[in-house]
Structure formats: structure tokens, C-alpha cells
Write a structure and sequence with these properties.
It is a single chain. The protein is 46% helix and 19% strand. The chain is of the alpha+beta class. The chain folds into 2 domains: 79 residues, no CATH class; 61 residues, Beta Barrel (OB fold (Dihydrolipoamide Acetyltransferase, E2P)), CATH 2.40.50. It has a 5-stranded mixed barrel. A hairpin with a 2-residue loop joins strand 4 and strand 5. It is rod-shaped, with a radius of gyration of 30 Å.
Amino acid sequence: MDLSTIDTWAWILWLVVILLFLVIEMITVELTFLMLALGGIVGLVADLGGAPPWVQVILAAAAAIALVVFLRPRMLRRLQRTADTRPSNVEALIGLDGLVLATVSRVAGQVKLANGDIWTARSDTDTRLDPGTPVEVARIDGATAVVRAREQGVTP
């Protein structure tokens, strides 16, 4: 295969490379392969402009490197800025108010949390918490809420 054949069909190679990078980007969603695909577009444009293959590769590589270094971090920051940063799952329960349903001790008990969930509970201190006592979740140990009494004057 001589150089003129490669030069004649280089645009097809660029299209295949671009599509391959786009498919990989759809799977990974990390923006690296998107930048490489954009670099491939620069190589394709250079080919359509009549540049020799070695110039196409250099331009595509330079564009891809520049995009990965300068554009990708900005895009990732923008995507992360719009992400939901609220705590979820167990982290969302920490600090949540509740009310003692069954006496809570260091060993056992039951509380109803402000979100409506009823949890098996333990006290985080040696104090016994009677039914009706307002509490807050200190931490979660497996399927048990470790709670402490709320300060007086604070309503759940």
C-alpha cells in the first residue's frame, strides 16, 4: 500500500476514528474521548483541505491534547457544579429529628424519624430515652439508628 492510497482514503479512516471515539465516550462519559473525537475532526478537516497525512496526524494530536488539557477540566467542573450535592441514603439521615416510640437504651429501642420512617434505635450514651422524647440521629450502624436526646426547647 503506497502513500497515495492512504492519502486518498484518509477521510474514511478519520471518520472511523471519530465514530469509534464517540462510541467509547458514550460508554465512559468522562469527556476524554469526546476531546479525542474533536481532535479527529481537526484531522479530517486537514485531510479535506489537502494536507499530507503526517500533518493531519500532528494537527489532530495537537488539537486533542489542547482540548484535553484546557477544555475538558472546565467542562467537568461545569457538569459537577450542576450535580445534586444533597446527602442521600444513610448520609441524609444524620442529624434528622425523630421521636422515641419505644424506650431507647444502649441496647434497643424504636424511633420514628421526621421523614416518617420507623427505625430500631440505640442511645449513643448511657441515658435511657422514654417514649415521646425528641431525638436526633447521631449515626447509623447497619439497620439501627444511633440517637441522642435533642436539646431542651428545640422542637422536632
